[in-house]
Amino acid sequence: MNIALVGYGKMGHEIEKIARERKHNIVSIIDIDNQEDFDSNDFLHHTDVAIEFTRPETAFPNYMKCFERNIPVVTGTTGWLQHLEKIKKECQENKQTFFYASNYSIGVNLFFALSKFLAKMMNNFSQYDVSIEEVHHVHKLDSPSGTAITLSEGIIENINRKTFSNLSIRSKREDEVPGIHTVIYRSEADIISIRHNANNRKGFALGAILAAEYIQKKTGFLTMNDLLKPILI
Ligand SMILES: NC(=O)C1=CN([C@@H]2O[C@H](COP(=O)(O)OP(=O)(O)OC[C@H]3O[C@@H](n4cnc5c(N)ncnc54)[C@H](O)[C@@H]3O)[C@@H](O)[C@H]2O)C=CC1
Ligand SMILES: O=C(O)C1=N[C@H](C(=O)O)C[C@H](O)C1
């Protein structure tokens, strides 16, 4: 598979390593200083997928640049969801290919499923109040994290008494923490919590490559639910 990396920061570098281990080719690397490479021969004619990890405000313009050139996109950038409907429309009306996950780690996606299952049970136990905590490195630009937003959606879908306005999400920024997410249920009598703690960025990078492999010859708006459907209960 021929990959273009859009964004060559912490995630871009990690994805490059895993892509090469899996014998994929990196045909172009586009960062802030070489935007003209969106019109290079390699990007236009030799790219099977663009893997985009940049910044909240640059993500949507980058997606549009890829769509204008009919290049499929796998992205993990968070903090751009105000544009979600426009992206879905592009996929539907112009047959573009777009894969987004707020978190590509397989472990986090198991954690999402576990959190939904717990929320479904907690719908019957109103003595518990639920909240989310997330901790990330000090360089993170968006808050709350994309992962915390996905966790909150899974909880709100399953607990009738919970809405976006009464579900508390606490965000902390500390040192170089790759990402910790905790869902906490507190009652007067006890506390139940479940946590995912990323040791490094390898799981995010591998998941993004798996998504890029998965979307080959597919069109539409795709997520980890599509990728993991055969293996998640
Ligand atoms: N979905 C997931 O599993 C994960 C998502 N992320 C998200 O991915 C994004 C990137 O994370 P990191 O790599 O840690 O950030 P980073 O700050 O290390 O790297 C971002 C890179 O994008 C470049 N960039 C800025 N504007 C650009 C533009 N217009 N075009 C191309 N490149 C541009 C920067 O120069 C930098 O090299 C963040 O939004 C973060 O929240 C991070 C880890 C996992
Ligand atoms: O910025 C990060 O680093 C991460 N961002 C994603 C998020 O916002 O949830 C995924 C992961 O937690 C790392």
TrEMBL record:
Q: In which pathway does it act?
A: Amino-acid biosynthesis; L-lysine biosynthesis via DAP pathway; (S)-tetrahydrodipicolinate from L-aspartate: step 4/4
Name one matching Pfam family. DapB_N
Matching InterPro entries: DapB_C, DapB_N, DHDPR_bac, NAD(P)-bd_dom_sf
Known catalytic reactions: (S)-2,3,4,5-tetrahydrodipicolinate + NADP(+) + H2O = (2S,4S)-4-hydroxy-2,3,4,5-tetrahydrodipicolinate + NADPH + H(+); (S)-2,3,4,5-tetrahydrodipicolinate + NAD(+) + H2O = (2S,4S)-4-hydroxy-2,3,4,5-tetrahydrodipicolinate + NADH + H(+)
Signal peptide limits? none
- Family statement: Belongs to the DapB family.
Q: What is its EC number?
A: 1.17.1.8
Q: What class of enzyme is it?
A: oxidoreductase
| Example GO BP | lysine biosynthetic process via diaminopimelate
Name assigned to this protein:
4-hydroxy-tetrahydrodipicolinate reductase
Sorted keywords for this record are: Amino-acid biosynthesis, Diaminopimelate biosynthesis, Lysine biosynthesis, NAD, NADP, Oxidoreductase
Enumerate the spans annotated as Dihydrodipicolinate reductase C-terminal domain: 107-228
**Single GO MF annotation:** 4-hydroxy-tetrahydrodipicolinate reductase
What Gene3D superfamilies does the record point to? Dihydrodipicolinate Reductase, domain 2 (3.30.360.10), NAD(P)-binding Rossmann-like Domain (3.40.50.720)
**Annotated Gene Ontology cellular component terms:** cytosol
Q: Where is the Dihydrodipicolinate reductase N-terminal domain?
A: 1-104
